[in-house]
Amino acid sequence: MVDTLTVSAVIVLAIVAVGLVRVLRGPSRIDRMMAVQLLGSGGVAVLVLLAVGSGTEALVDAALTLALLAAFASIALATTLVQKADLAAKADRAPGKPES
């Protein structure tokens, strides 16, 4: 059972590593953020699999902390993107801006 969980953790980790390519080469910020979310979720999965396999409760705590940080990162990105969109909309409506 422990070997199966360890192998599963390694497979999840390998899949998450492939997602790292999208973080580095993503065409947009949204693609990169979604890849970072994949890294966070995959990290949680790996930590939980290892915690169950090894019987270490501290890994579950680390997984929960990582999940919470990933959620806050998503909220921060969404807030930033909304603020940038609002600024761009205001700049488009600014008086004195030449028509294109």
TrEMBL record:
Membrane topology: Multi-pass membrane protein
Main location: membrane
Keywords from the named record: Cell membrane, Membrane, Transmembrane, Transmembrane helix, Transport
Species: Kaistia soli DSM 19436
Membrane spanning residue stretches: 6-24, 36-56, 62-82
GO-annotated cellular components: plasma membrane
Subcellular location: Cell membrane
Molecular function as annotated in GO: sodium:proton antiporter activity
Protein name (Swiss-Prot/TrEMBL): Multisubunit sodium/proton antiporter, MrpF subunit (TC 2.A.63.1)
Similarity section: Belongs to the CPA3 antiporters (TC 2.A.63) subunit F family.
Superkingdom of the source species: Bacteria
